[in-house]
């Protein structure tokens, strides 16, 4: 059993007959009344995100998890195939288990949380950022830089990301996986 003081990003808990992963939390101590923890929970089975508030000291049933490194192999419909980098066993996960499947490039190494009790995969943690090549984008218009102007660009995985005007086709860019936003251009 855990309490609200143990809540952190990535913690898996059993709540409302389902297993949820904490993706965001905030401890709040108002001037009047008791403290509480505001959370965003993502169901590892359906992918649905809910907001929930726990009062301070509330008991939570945490789920013991192991983390393993897996390499992404290929997609097949709604299933994504991964291979364990240590023992080369393969698993398939539903698209709901991934936070940003459109940023996943073949060969990318991810961390998969596995339930210690039954060996079932719970969720996939992407690296903080990925480097992707821009495959299609419009040329930037000269003089259109009064503010932080951006344009849409399609990357090699098929995702569309807003990038600055100076990014061209063939450039490699670093993308933050948690928000799906452009971070910087990568020089080779």
TrEMBL record:
Domain of life: Bacteria
Swiss-Prot/TrEMBL GO biological process terms: peptide biosynthetic process
Entry's family note: Belongs to the elongation factor P family.
SUPFAM superfamilies on file: Nucleic acid-binding proteins, Translation proteins SH3-like domain
Domain Translation elongation factor P/YeiP central: 67-122
Protein name: Elongation factor P
Purpose of the protein: Involved in peptide bond synthesis. Stimulates efficient translation and peptide-bond synthesis on native or reconstituted 70S ribosomes in vitro. Probably functions indirectly by altering the affinity of the ribosome for aminoacyl-tRNA, thus increasing their reactivity as acceptors for peptidyl transferase.
Pfam family, one: Elong-fact-P_C
GO annotations of cellular component type: cytosol
Species in which this protein is naturally found: Formosa agariphila (strain DSM 15362 / KCTC 12365 / LMG 23005 / KMM 3901 / M-2Alg 35-1)
Residue span(s) of domain Elongation factor P C-terminal: 130-185
GO molecular function: translation elongation factor activity
Transmembrane domains' residue ranges: none
């Amino acid at each position: 059993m855990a309490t609200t003081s143990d809540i952190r990003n990535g913690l898996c808990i059993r709540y409302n007959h389902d297993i949820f992963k904490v993706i965001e939390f905030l401890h709040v101590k108002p001037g009047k009344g008791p403290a509480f923890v505001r959370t965003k929970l993502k169901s590892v089975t359906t992918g649905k995100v809910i907001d929930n508030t726990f009062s301070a000291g509330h008991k939570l049933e945490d789920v013991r998890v192991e983390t393993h490194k897996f390499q992404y192999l290929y997609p097949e419909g709604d299933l994504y195939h991964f291979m364990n980098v240590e023992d080369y066993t393969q698993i398939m996960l539903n698209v709901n288990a991934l936070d940003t499947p459109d940023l996943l490039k073949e060969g990318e190494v991810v961390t998969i949380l596995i339930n210690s009790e039954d060996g079932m995969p719970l969720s996939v943690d992407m690296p903080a950022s990925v480097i992707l090549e821009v495959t299609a984008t419009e040329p930037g218009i000269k003089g259109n830089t009064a503010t932080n102007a951006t344009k849409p660009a399609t990357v090699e995985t098929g995702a569309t990301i807003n990038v600055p005007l100076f990014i061209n086709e063939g450039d490699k860019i670093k993308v933050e996986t948690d928000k799906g936003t452009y971070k910087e251009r990568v020089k080779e």
